[in-house]
Amino acid sequence: MNLAAASGPVIPNFGQGSACERTNGWFCTDWLHAHWGDTLQPALVQHVELSAVAIGVGFVLASALALAGFRFRLLDPPIGFFADFLYTIPSLALFQLLVPLTGLTVTTVEIALVSYTLLILYRNMIAGLRAVPPEALEAARGSGLTRLQTFARVEVPLALPAIMAGLRIATVSTVSIATVAAFVIPQGLGRPIFIALDQGVFKTEILAAGLLVIALALFADGLLVLAQRTLTPWTRSA
Amino acid sequence: MPESAAEVVFDRATKLYPGRSEPAVDSLSLTVPAGEICVLVGPSGSGKTTALKLVNRLIYLTGGEIRIDGTKIYDLDVTDLRRSIGYVIQQVGLFPHMTVAANVGTVPRLLGWPRQRIRARTAELLDLVGLHAAEDGPRYPSQLSGGQRQRVGLARALAANPPLMLMDEPFGAIDPIVRARLQDEFLRLQQELRKTVLFVTHDIDEAIKIGDRIAIFRQGGTLAQYDTPESILRRPADDFVAEFVGADRALKALALHTLGELELGPPRDGPRAAADTNLRDALALLLDEHADVIAVTDAGGTVIGSATRDDLLR
After folding, report:
1. pLDDT tens digits for B32-86?
2. Confidence check on the interface: ipTM exceeds 0.90, yes or no
3. Of B58, B140, B153, which has the smallest distance from its Cβ to A141's Cβ?
4. CATH for A39-236?
5. Superfamily classification of domain B259-313
6. For the domain bounded by B8-253, which CATH number is listed?
7. Helix, strand, or coil here: A236?
8. Whole-prediction pTM
9. Could you tell me which of A171, A176, A216, A181 has the C-alpha nearest to residue A110?
10. What are the residue boundaries of the structural domains of chain A, listed by start?
11. Which residue of A has its CA nearest to B160?
């Protein structure tokens, strides 16, 4: 005999879950205990991987673009426009656009995530490099630093605060957007959220995954703040 | 004095910017003897800073040549040339991300000195310019006052013991009291170091105080007069120079000498002034006191002679 109400929400493990789960309570800790290992933890690890790869690749690409846009000023407007353009495509739309090309793969997800980091990283890198005080550059030239030495020893270090600021924004937004990856591949913290939505809005799972996304973003941001303090000691002492 | 100072020769040096009909520096010829301070002074737009930057090739020379100790500057590698010339600018241009010590060690690092030697040299220089190596060395430029920053800038320029220093309005952005002190300390340093110095300023009083020789530039980048401060004040070459040095040039010339340099009369009563007082201040004292004669004292305050108004103005 199936006693399940035909109209009520379909809760996972219905019939054997706790009272909290059966009534779809706000935050069922016993569900968390039971499903941390098979649901949340793997999703969290995947989420970290998806985000880290996107930020890493985005950083390398943006660095190359910034190098070009800084060295050859004529390239800056087209690169900026391209990055702007990518940034303005809604993430869901971008995933959908890429699927026919790259399929339901990690590649699709990473291309989209990287696209969103480019604008923030590129703009901050260029702004940081351009903001180097002209008198420091004149002193560098006058002291006999070569063009390359000036770039490596003066311009890049002085652009670091702006670069790190860009990296922080890009990291937080990537961690957030990576949730949408679950539309394409069954990975990341978006996955449990979609499943929970599918199963009649199971609140505990949505809340838990959502909170993990937020916690991950804040944690990564905190790490970057620490890195910035270590890398730019002069900004602390003014 | 090999190594410690170099002769600089401008030989019809000319800078013509592309698209301009008038050169910024027009066929400039002048010789700065080794170990002397040559001040380039003139109104803005007269090409004095351009002339300075031609020497370390921050600005490309378009005509004539410049020689340092007989070597044409375009025969040298540009980075070698710049590393052998100390460069000080008004905005100082310290590297904000480097400590004071690292800033001072910039050129020695480029030259590949061993770390130990750089550290010792940095400490020596910071003490030389009146800072404390142990205390100020680890600080960042943002933690220093304007005067301290310019001292660090000077130490950085001196680090590799260059035979030539280029200084572009180095004290221009510093308040008058600190500026006067820095000028005095710079002159004291120069007594010891005996570098060849090219020093740009728009302030004729600074030029008179600092320069062994003064090159006065006029609009169009030509040299109006190149001579000692005394000659420029007493025998300005033309109306432009006379006007530029000011209507009080006779008074400025008085300030170049002290009571001790006069042939003093026998000790007499009068307002007292020490022998190292300059003649301008001595004259002011006479006018203040409505006196005709000054009692000149030695450092200990003993009257050693006298000077009349006529003596001062002779």
Report:
1. 999 999 999 999 889 999 999 999 999 999 999 999 999 999 999 999 999 999 9
2. no
3. B58
4. 1.10.3720.10
5. CBS-domain (3.10.580.10)
6. 3.40.50.300
7. helix
8. 0.83
9. A181
10. 39-236
11. A143
